[in-house]
Amino acid sequence: MSSQARPVKLTVEDYMLLPDDGKRHELIDGDHYATPSPNTKHQITSSNLRRMLSAFVQEKKMGRVFTAPFDVILSDVDVVQPDLLFISSARASILTEANAQGAPDLAGC
Predict the structure, then answer these.
(1) Tens of each residue's pLDDT in the chain, 109 residues
(2) N or C end of the chain: smaller count of CB under 10 Å?
(3) Among candidates 74, 90, 73, 71, which has minimal Cα distance to 24?
């Protein structure tokens, strides 16, 4: 038996206690990742994509488009914040007041 300690995996409950410090916080397999806010070019591109996708989705009454920060809880140890995500009307039940509880139909970072 190894004498090395097993790394601690964070959970959704731990994630909810992280500070709102302007960074993107995510959990991937219980490991915490924090990244700084995106640069200007990234924000312009993301904003343009959101505008085009939102117009199309709204016109076709297909569902909802969200932008970061918006938590997507994939499991007890996986929480991500895609820059842009789409959830179809057929899967609207994954939406809660605070987040999405399951994979979106489309996500982009």
Answers:
(1) 555 676 789 999 999 999 888 889 999 999 999 998 889 999 999 999 999 999 999 999 999 999 999 999 999 999 999 999 999 999 999 999 999 999 999 999 7
(2) N
(3) 71
Q: Identify whether the C-beta of residue 75 lies closer than 8 Å to the C-beta of residue 97.
A: no
Enumerate residues 6+ apart whose C-beta is below 8 A from 34: 23, 24, 25, 26
Q: Which two tokens stand for residue 46?
A: 């993301």
Report whether the peptide linkage leading into residue 104 is cis, meaning its omega lies within 30 degrees of zero: no
Q: Which of 80, 77, 104 is nearest to 93 (CA)?
A: 104
- The C-alpha R_g of the chain, in whole angstroms, comes to 16
- CA 90 and chain centroid, separation: 19
Query: What's the predicted TM-score (pTM) here?
Result: 0.88
